[in-house]
Structures are given as C-alpha cells and as structure tokens.
Amino acid sequence: MSTPISRRAWLTSVPAALGGLLLTGCSRERFIPPRVRGGLIGAADVLTMSTNRLLLSGQPLAREYSRSDVADPFPTWNQTNPRNAEYQRHASEGFGSWRLPVGGLVARPRELSLDEIRRLPARTQITAHVCEQGWSAIGEWTGVALQRVLEEAGGVTPAARYVVIDTFDGWYEGYDLFEVAHAQTILAYGLNGRDLPRGNGAPLRLRVERQCGYKNLKFLKSIRVVDSMAGIGRGTGGINSDFGFHWFAGV
Amino acid sequence: MGVDSVSISEKPRPAEPPSTVHSYNVRICHWINLVACVYLLWSGVHVFLDFPELYWGHTGYRGYPAAFRLADWGLSWEQAGALGDRRWGRNYHFTFAWVFLINGLVYVLWNLYSTHFRTRMLASHSSYGTLQRASYLVLIFVFVPLMILTGIAQSPGFTAAMPALLDLFGGRQTARTLHTIGTVVLVLFVLVHVVEVARAGFFVKVRSMITGK
Q1: Are A69 and B58 within 8 A, CB to CB?
Q2: Among B61, B90, B91, whose Cβ lies nearest the Cβ of A75?
Q3: Which architecture, in CATH terms, is A63-242?
Q4: pTM of the model
Q5: Distance, CA of A42 to CA of A36 (rounded, Å)
C-alpha cells in the first residue's frame, strides 16, 4: 500500500524540487528576463537565456585574442559625442570633476572619481565586440571589474537583483548579478593601450563580453543596484528591450 | 472479429513496402518546418540587410575589407538599411530557430525510433531515387546541423561557452558568411524540391503531404 503513495510522491516531488532549484536555489533572474514578453517570442527568450546561462554555469571567459588582432582605431557606432551639457562640460575638463555615483542597494553608497577607479586593480582583456547588427571588432580593453567597484561601495545587500547603469546619452540597461560577477565584466577606461576615446565611450564604458554590443554601454553616468526592474523606464529591464530588442543579448 | 481486424492492421509490418504515404509525424513536421523556414529566411534577410556586407575571419566592420558588399550589386548601405528591420528580424529569427530546432529534433528522433529513415531513406527498394535519398540525408544530417552551428558561432554567449565553434569555422565573420551562403543553397534546394513535386503532380503530392493519402 505504501508503494503507490511513495511513487506518487516521487512523481510530484522531483519536478517540484527541480523547479524550485531552478527558481530559488540558482535565482530566477539568472535564467529568465526581468519581464517576459508574451507569446512565442517570450517563450523563445526564456529558452535562449536559460540555455545560455546553463552552458555558462562555470562562468568561462569569452575568447581573448592577441594584440595583433586588435582593430586600431577601433570602429565607432551610434552615439560618438553626447550633446548632454553636463557631459560636454566634463569632456572639456578632461573628466577631472566627473564622478561615478554607486548607489541603491549597496552597503555604503559613494562616488568614485576617474583617478580612484584607475587605482583599483586593473584587468586588461583583448576581446571581440560583437554587435547585434553583425559586425565585430577586437579591442584591448583596460578597466576594473564591476564587482570590484560594487565592493568599493560595501557590496550589494541581500535584496539586490539587478545593477542598473545610466549613461550621458540617455541610455540605461539592467544586468543580473550573474553577469555582474563575471571576471570580464569590467568598467573600461582604456582602449588599445590609451585612454578610452570619446567616440568609444569616454570616460568609462561597460564591457559585458558575452552579450551583444548594445549591452556594452558607453559614457557611464551612474550605477545603482535595485531589487526589481519594474518602474524603471518601461519596466522591461533596459532601453533596448523597451524598444523591443532582446533584454538578454547573448545571441 | 472487429477487435481482431484492428490488432492485425496495427501489427508492425515486417518490411514496409514502397509507398508514397507519409506518416502523420512526417506530415505535421513538414508543415511546421515550412512555416519555421519561411520565417527564418525572411527574418534572416532583415538581419542581413541591416549590415549588408560579409567578411572572412574573426573581424568585420564597416570599412574593413569585405568579401561581399551589397553596395557592389546596386543597393547602397542606406537603401538596404531602410528595407531591413533588424529588431523584427532578430526577434523572429531566434523564435523560429527554436521552433525549427525542436520540430527537427522531434522529426529525427521519432523517425529514428520508427522505421522511416531505414525503410525510405536507406533501403535500396525505397520509393525515392538514390540521388533523392542521398540529398535528403545530407540535408538533414550534415547541412542543417552546419546551419545551426554557423548560426550560434555568431553568438557571443554561445561562443563563450563553446569557443571551439570559433575555431571550427575560423571566426564568427566566417561563420556569418557561411550561414549566408548556406541560406542561398537551402533556397535553391527548396526550389528544386518544389519543381520535383510539381513534376510528380503538385496537387496530388501536396494533398498527400496534408492528408497522408
């Protein structure tokens, strides 16, 4: 008599345990976009992101190339000089008074100057910038791990789910903590051995090497840590997904 | 009695005789595949038009030496960009890539389990000709996997997980170029396929792929 009951218990508990592991143990936002679109497109979004993230569970590094592969000058695309008055003032001053606020769900919100950021442990990586349009170019990026910058602000609080980056050209994007924790997720101030040129995002740009170009924001203005992307922009998790592109740009 | 006749007709046939009847798995997968391929082609054209140049190797951008430029064929970058909507294209390309992949896996696994491949693709007494059988097998087991691999070899996420994809094709731009050439080959294949169907009697063949009779 106990056999059928235990078998039934098995049948229900195994999927429940697997689902629970996926949704809580490994955190939902690692596998599913902040807001899932409707219909077949939304189902495909979830399949694409969760497949990618399962394959990337061990946080492998994206391919790093050699110096001879570098494109110099590195191509520029989209905005190359934000008209924003504050940005223009900072640019004319050589970004000497520019500060990067790191706030939201961190232990000690603070602002960092470019010099302070440069004094943090640096990482240089020669990687391919892969634009969703189809082009790709290899650059040598130098910067500090985003994770390290968050630690400068005391680290994220337990409620933290996404890191939101705002830029001087009016863009914003959200990144889940799995992306943030990656060693190659850096805030770059150098390109090909020199200061990051204005056309490529001076003074500071994000590198997320496992996602397409549009997630690699330029002209950084601020960083904030949030528990939800709801209420930011149109609530889809970033300006590109607000406009109907994929939020997860790993393909 | 009635029960006996049902059980007899459902017994597995020892060696399926040459037949033009399609199993319902083949029929359902065929039409889902058609819808997926039409969307994949059309959305792929949109993605391509937004960046209408092809390159070899790991690198390729506007100004880099190109292997193919649509501008050389009379359609400027701006004209092509105005025709293509990459947001629509990307959304639908990746959606129907999943439809295509899942449908294709169902088709292959189901038919490996049943006798479809053995009796119709490999057996010498099949109703298909040798060239026809060879081309279908190459398409399913060589060409389509290569299209999928050249597709995901362009993805920064998948190539971080599987960097061997970059080495397999010699770079993501080479993969993109091969993916595009493969599309042209596939379209030619489908044209030949439709011409063959038309020669065999278009109405009868299409009806048979819908009704199985």
Answers
A1: yes
A2: B61
A3: Alpha-Beta Complex (3.90)
A4: 0.88
A5: 6
